[in-house]
């Protein structure tokens, strides 16, 4: 297939693109605006492939999206492009409304027009979403299932919930062959440093405080990003249009446990600590909790396993070790992010 991947320079998107190019016969057209979280460095290993194309474009631009479909004539779309950081959505929700809602609408309309004209008969539209649309899960509650009612708490989660509803409406009303996935917290290589796990790793390496919201007892289900990439390809190839699939790692952990796990791995893998740091755990600092912070998310991924034969290869111990090791071995990648070179160079090339 020729697959349009939106947001393919982001964290999950780049893992998916690398997997598609390296491990499948499919062709990939990566459509990304290259906002702050889009990093072409994450795609360096496959950028020269003859089965990979990059298009810098804004999914909110309807004309641009229609041109992309006419030019590349895709067999499928995997839609990941989104604003995704909860703290940023609290500080500035407008960008989340424009990208996650309006952008998804424009892409759906372009896909609908393409399918009505020259699209292959097996065309599919896979929309990638989050478990945060389900809201706050009681500590003793059953994990989220595909039929769990939506109850988003943050502007980010609300706009993703809205985009899920748009996708399903285009499937029901216009017959667009859509699939929806809702995933748990991803982690792994090439994640932007604002997210919990890379933020803690890089802060620890620089002897900076490790800020933990509230009491650190918030529970998340952790999914290794390469397992997620494999799951998305499986859903695209074998999922039933109109269905939703929850993708989780079966790895629930409290935030404070995650931070302590990172510290302990650094003690083993990076024993030469920064000056003045006796133990990495000494850097943990509790800070005021953010507004509307959900206490627990957890995914029931049995449908993925029973219907599509997918299950994660990594447990949290193995995935976290791989992740910490990757950041220790790829300092140039994250140093270019921290000092802004990853953006300055491409802006200079475009001027």
Summarize the structure in short.
This protein has a domain at 2-187 and 223-250 and 296-315: NAD(P)-binding Rossmann-like Domain (Rossmann fold), CATH 3.40.50.720.
Walk me through the structure.
This protein has 351 residues and is α/β, with parallel strands linked by helices. The longest helix is centred in the first third of the chain and has 25 residues, at 93-117. The protein has helices at residues 11-23, 62-72, 86-91, 93-117, 155-174, 196-205, 225-238, 255-269, 302-308, 316-329, 331-338, 341-350, and strands at 2-6, 27-32, 52-56, 76-79, 124-130, 178-183, 185-187, 210-213, 219-224, 244-247, 252-254, 284-287. Helix 2 packs parallel to helix 4, helix 6 (196-205) packs across helix 8 and helix 8 packs across helix 10. Helix 5 (155-174) links the parallel strand 5 and strand 6. It has 12 helices and 12 strands. It has a 7-stranded parallel β-sheet, with helices on both faces. It has a 3-stranded mixed β-sheet with strand order 7-9-11. Strands 8-12 form a two-stranded parallel ribbon. Helices cover 44% and strands 16% of the residues. It has a domain at 2-187 and 223-250 and 296-315: Rossmann fold, CATH 3.40.50.720. It is globular and about 65 Å long. The mean pLDDT is 95.
CATH superfamily of the domain at 2-187 and 223-250 and 296-315: NAD(P)-binding Rossmann-like Domain
Q: What does the main sheet amount to? A: 7 strands, parallel
Radius of gyration: 20 Å
Number of strands: 12
Which strand order spans the largest sheet, edge to edge or round the barrel?
A: 3-2-1-4-5-6-10
Q: Percent helix among the residues?
A: 40-55%
CATH architectural name of the domain at 2-187 and 223-250 and 296-315: 3-Layer(aba) Sandwich
> What is the tally of helical segments?
12
Please indicate the percent range of residues in DSSP E strands (runs of 2 or more).
Answer: 15-25%
